[in-house]
User: Fold this.
Amino acid sequence: MSVIVSLVMQYKRTIISQWLLSMNKSTREQLLGELGKSICSIDVPVEGIIEQLAAGLLSACANDMGLSPMELSSLLHKPRKMALAGLLTVLHNDA
Assistant:
């Protein structure tokens, strides 16, 4: 975790985007596929789906770092917004 935090400080990236970028492409695709399958989309507006995806990323990142989602959230200024920003960063880099 300390390597990720130092990279975050150096390059002004979010913890979650740095965590996602540290994965290889197949691992990221597997994670995003699992998160996509777990989304409940029946009668849920797009904003709700985005919130579910951000919450899933936050939880997966926290789990991988040995933190609870609450502990990771306390390190982030706007946890769900930063989770979504991390996802957009990775998708942009993969394109």
User: Anything to note?
Assistant: Helices lie at 2-11, 15-21, 25-38, 46-64, 69-75, 79-94. The two ends are 27 Å apart (CA to CA).
